[in-house]
Write a structure and sequence with these properties.
single chain; about 280 residues; alpha/beta; nine-stranded mixed beta sheet; 11 helices; globular
Length: about 280
């Protein structure tokens, strides 16, 4: 994550330099404040409602990114949009949940009992259950069973594309690890967002908003250094944490600045969400 922050900062600084604007000035003029990720105002709707697909990247085992997913879903449906919501989960790992929407089936599914990277968090579970009965929301699961295959991102792209084609008039929101929603290849391998942005049939090139989560301090429950546990983070102040006085905000970059992501959502604090079932 720190590497991503430095890379994105460098790209933004370079491109804004060409337009005569520094990063702090850009953030002051364009950052849109919100109070809580799961409770968003009309200013955020005005910022993001033109996009057909919003992809949220996260560090697994945290509350804020999936909170933003829920907040955006609630915001869009409140304004009359129908929304598809996709999770980085393989459909066969949640049994028949989409058919009967049973809380018990989801809680005891293979995904929520055996996932080793922190995605099987209480926050993800509670969000899925909170959205399951919303008539304007269609849930789907788009991960594959090939977690360590170079084809994984291309298969996830196909799964997301299929859902979009089934509901062409709907908005789509997805959540995944923050590598999968990169527009550029990572270590030479094209990622899910790259395939979607370049799909000539979808024609979403300028209709995808890919957001990465930036933060300063807090905790997360995920795999680091081969240990799945709560980890503390405490980064020094940066342009993103000091340019504005907001605790939380979203900023979308000028279109020609977009590189790995369209923009960021910043929360000064990040909060761990532990697995619903610990082994």
């Amino acid at each position: 994550m720190k590497k991503n922050l430095l890379l994105l900062s460098g790209i933004l600084l370079c491109c804004l330099y060409l337009t005569g604007q520094d990063i702090k000035s850009y953030l002051k003029e364009n950052a849109v404040k919100f109070n809580r990720p799961d409770s968003l105002g009309d200013e955020i709707y005005e910022l993001l409602s033109a996009y057909k697909l919003i992809m949220i990247g996260e560090m697994h085992g945290t509350k804020e990114p999936v909170g933003l997913l829920k907040g955006l879903t609630d915001l869009l449906t409140r304004h009359g949009d129908s929304v598809e919501v996709g999770f980085e989960i393989a459909s066969n790992q949640v049994n028949n949940f989409l058919e009967d929407k049973s809380d018990s089936i989801l809680v005891h599914s293979d995904f929520f009992t055996n996932t080793p990277d922190g995605r099987n968090s209480t926050a993800w579970l509670e969000t899925i259950l909170s959205l399951k009965n919303n008539t304007r929301v269609h849930l789907f699961f788009y991960d594959t069973n090939h977690e360590y295959s170079n084809a994984r991102d291309s298969e996830m792209y196909v799964n997301i594309r299929t859902e979009i084609m089934l509901h062409p008039g709907w908005k789509t929101i997805t959540i995944s690890g923050n590598i999968h929603n990169m527009f550029l290849p990572y270590k030479g391998i094209a990622k899910t967002a790259n395939f979607l942005r370049n799909d000539s049939v979808l024609n979403f090139y300028d209709k995808i908003c890919s957001l990465n989560h930036f933060y300063q301090t807090g905790t997360m429950f995920n795999m680091m250094n081969n240990k799945l546990e709560i980890h503390e983070v405490d980064y020094p102040p940066s342009e993103y944490s000091t340019a504005v006085e907001y605790e939380n905000y979203i900023v979308v970059f000028p279109y020609n600045v977009s590189d790995n992501y369209s923009g960021i959502f910043f929360t000064k604090h990040i909060t761990a969400s532990e697995p619903i079932n610990k082994n």
